[in-house]
Write a structure and sequence with these properties.
Pfam families: adh_short_C2 (PF13561). This protein is of the alpha/beta class and 256 residues long. It is 46% helix and 14% strand. The chain is built from eight helices and seven strands; from the N terminus they run E-H-E-H-E-H-E-H-E-H-E-H-H-H-E. A seven-stranded parallel beta sheet has the order 3-2-1-4-5-6-7, sandwiched between helices. The structure holds nicotinamide-adenine-dinucleotide (NAD).
Length: 256
């Protein structure tokens, strides 16, 4: 059980981050939810999670495209035994037309935020004598697709950060791993569908089956509960010697 542990999950008021927060709370952890905007009454969301699982759940607003905000999030959390770097966005555009501000934002949010939160959380983990860092990369951290240059670059970078932090903590009771999901049906994926329809000139059903799930041999999207369950596993005693690696939850994507 994760009773008494505090988990900070970035970008956790929707999608995969919320799924991870729920599974960690179910396993007994106290949870810190985060998003950038404060939209959708996240304080109430935290209260509901706390009532459902009987653990302490707080919400801290922070725009993690800002370096100092990342570090302040960990400071405000006060404790961070489990750090899940999940916040991330996508933008689909050919490289020569890719907007510079979008490139900079995606590198900042999808990659640099994990550097800043890790740097702030590691001293706390060392003091506590235990820590788990879980970076939510992607099948796009191991393979590429056209029109996703910033996202693929950031997600590959996150795998490199994972390996480096694992080596720096190798002799300590701290592990650092990345989860590489294939397609998981969330708002981020939903938002890609119109762009993909436009880029490929296809209707919704065709673009989902032939483009999005083309490389996912199971032909099914993973669920946020499954990504949460994988996170809980990486926090378990069974995973103590798992560090510096990636776990794919991708229906066979990276086997192709
Ligand atoms: P989502 O859009 O549902 O959630 C993204 C989260 O990030 C939200 O909670 C949002 O509040 C937060 N966020 C966005 N901008 C932020 C900012 N500036 N500061 C702080 N938080 C911010 O997306 P999702 O599909 O749940 O994706 C979560 C992570 O999983 C992302 O890193 C994504 O790249 C990764 N991923 C998703 C899939 C998939 O198929 N959905 C596959 C592989 C990897």
């Amino acid at each position: 059980s994760l009773n008494g542990k505090t988990a900070v999950i970035t970008g956790s008021t929707s999608g995969i981050g919320l799924g991870i927060a729920r599974e960690l709370a179910r396993a007994g952890a106290n949870v810190v939810l985060n998003s950038s905007s404060g939209k959708g009454d996240p304080q109430a969301q935290a209260g509901e999670l706390s009532d459902e699982f009987g653990t302490e759940v707080r919400y801290i607003q922070a725009d993690l495209s800002d370096a100092q905000a990342c570090r302040d999030l960990i400071t405000k959390a006060g404790a961070c035994d489990i750090l899940v770097n999940n916040a991330g966005i996508q933008h689909v555009c050919p490289v020569e037309e890719f907007p510079i501000d979008k490139w900079n934002l995606i590198i900042a949010l999808n990659l640099s935020s994990a550097f800043h939160t890790t740097a702030a959380a590691l001293p706390m983990m060392r003091d506590a004598g235990w820590g788990r860092i879980i970076n939510i990369s992607s099948a796009h951290g191991l393979t590429a697709s056209p029109f996703k240059s910033a996202y693929v670059s950031a997600k590959h970078g996150m795998v490199g950060l994972t390996k480096t932090v694992a080596l720096e903590t190798a002799e300590e009771p701290i592990t650092c791993n990345a989860i590489c999901p294939g397609y998981v049906l969330t708002p981020l994926v939903e938002a890609q569908i119109p762009d993909q329809m436009k880029a490929h000139g296809m209707d919704r059903e065709t673009v989902i089956r032939e483009v999005m799930l083309e490389r996912q041999p199971s032909k099914q999207m993973a669920t946020v509960e499954q990504i949460g369950g994988t996170t809980v596993f990486l926090c378990s005693d069974a995973a103590e010697q798992i560090t510096g690696t990636t776990i794919s939850v991708d229906g066979g994507w990276t086997a192709l």
